C-alpha cells in the first residue's frame, strides 16, 4: 500500500512540476508534509535532513554565491577576463583554465558557471566562434575546480557528511 501511495505522490508532484499550476518552490515544500501525512515518513525522519551539517553548508554556499553575484565581485572578474583575452579564443581558454577552477573550488560550481555563461556568449560572438567552444570548457573547468575542495560541489559535502556519520572516529575528510 505504501508503494501505491508513494507512486501517487510522485505522479502528482511530476504533474505539478510540469504544469506549474502551483509554483515549483511551493510544490517542493509540499512534498515533505505529503509524505508525513501519508504515513510514509514519521516527523523525525522527515526533518532529520535539516540537522545535517551538509544541508546547512550547501545552503550557506548558495547564500555566499548569491552574495558574490549581487555585489559584482564575479562580474569584475569576468570583465577583466574579457579585456585580457585580446581577441584570441586560445587566450580565453587559458584564462578560463586558470580562473574558473580556482573560483569553483571555493564556491559552488553552479553559480560560477551561471555567472560566466553570458560573458562567454558575448566573447564567443566577439571572436566569431561557436559558443560551445567556450561553454563546454567552462563547464569542465568548473567541475574540475569543484572536485578540489569539499565546498566546491554539493556532492563532496554530502559524501563527507555521510563519511563522518559512518566513521565518527575518523573525523571526515580534511
Can you describe this structure?
With 174 residues, this protein is an all-alpha fold. It has 9 helices and no strands. It has helices spanning 2-19, 24-37, 43-47, 53-71, 73-85, 89-106, 109-127, 132-146, 154-166. Helix 1 runs antiparallel to helix 2 and helix 6 (89-106) runs antiparallel to helix 7. The longest helix has 19 residues, at 53-71. The chain is elongated, with a radius of gyration of 21 Å. The termini are far apart. The mean pLDDT is 83.
Q: Mind summarizing the main beta sheet?
A: none
In round numbers, the mean pLDDT is 83
What is the N-to-C succession of helices and strands?
A: HHHHHHHHH
Rg (C-alpha, Å): 21 Å
Structural class: mainly alpha
Total DSSP helices: 9
Give me the count of strands: 0
Helix proportion of residues, in percent? over 70%
- Taken as a percent bin, the fraction of beta residues is under 5%
Low-pLDDT stretches are none
Q: N-to-C terminal Cα separation, in Å?
A: 44 Å
Q: Indicate the overall shape.
A: elongated
Describe the structure concisely.
It is built from 9 helices and no strands. The protein is an all-alpha fold.
Give keywords:
mainly alpha; 174 residues; single chain
Describe the secondary-structure layout:
Layout: H1 2-19, H2 24-37, H3 43-47, H4 53-71, H5 73-85, H6 89-106, H7 109-127, H8 132-146, H9 154-166
Amino acid at each position: 500500500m505504501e508503494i501505491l501511495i508513494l507512486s501517487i505522490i510522485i505522479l502528482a508532484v511530476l504533474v505539478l512540476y510540469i504544469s506549474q499550476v502551483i509554483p515549483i518552490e511551493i510544490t517542493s515544500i509540499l512534498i515533505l508534509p505529503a509524505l508525513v501525512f501519508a504515513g510514509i515518513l514519521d516527523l523525525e525522519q522527515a526533518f532529520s535532513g535539516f540537522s545535517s551539517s551538509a544541508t546547512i553548508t550547501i545552503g550557506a554556499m548558495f547564500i555566499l554565491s548569491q552574495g558574490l553575484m549581487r555585489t559584482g565581485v564575479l562580474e569584475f572578474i569576468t570583465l577583466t577576463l574579457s579585456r585580457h583575452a585580446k581577441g584570441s579564443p586560445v587566450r580565453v581558454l587559458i584564462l578560463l583554465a586558470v580562473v574558473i577552477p580556482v573560483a569553483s573550488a571555493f564556491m559552488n560550481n553552479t553559480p560560477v558557471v551561471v555567472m560566466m555563461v553570458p560573458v562567454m556568449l558575448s566573447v564567443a560572438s566577439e571572436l566569431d566562434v561557436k559558443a560551445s567552444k567556450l561553454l563546454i570548457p567552462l563547464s569542465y573547468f568548473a567541475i574540475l575546480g569543484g572536485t578540489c575542495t569539499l565546498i566546491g560541489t554539493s556532492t563532496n559535502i554530502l559524501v563527507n557528511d555521510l563519511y563522518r556519520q559512518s566513521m565518527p572516529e575518523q573525523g571526515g575528510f580534511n
